[in-house]
Amino acid sequence: MTELRKMQWNNHVWSALCASITPMPPIIRKRALLKIIKTSEELAKKRNSNIVEKEDLINAIYKKVPSSVRKMCLDSLLEFGISPNN
User: pTM of this prediction?
Assistant: First the structure.
């Protein structure tokens, strides 16, 4: 999956993303991953950062993950200590 990235990612954030998409239904998993990666990287660039960080990932999830699976995705991030509230 790392070949899908065009920027450097915080390793912890990348691991959290990979884990967070695993519970998604297979039919939407790949598409969601591509959208999340692209949007996260765009958000990092807007912050003038060369590294994708947790705030980029969280914002991308809110923007691109369908509401039907968004909570599941965010809950998976919590297992990595990544919360939309911190």
Answer: 0.89
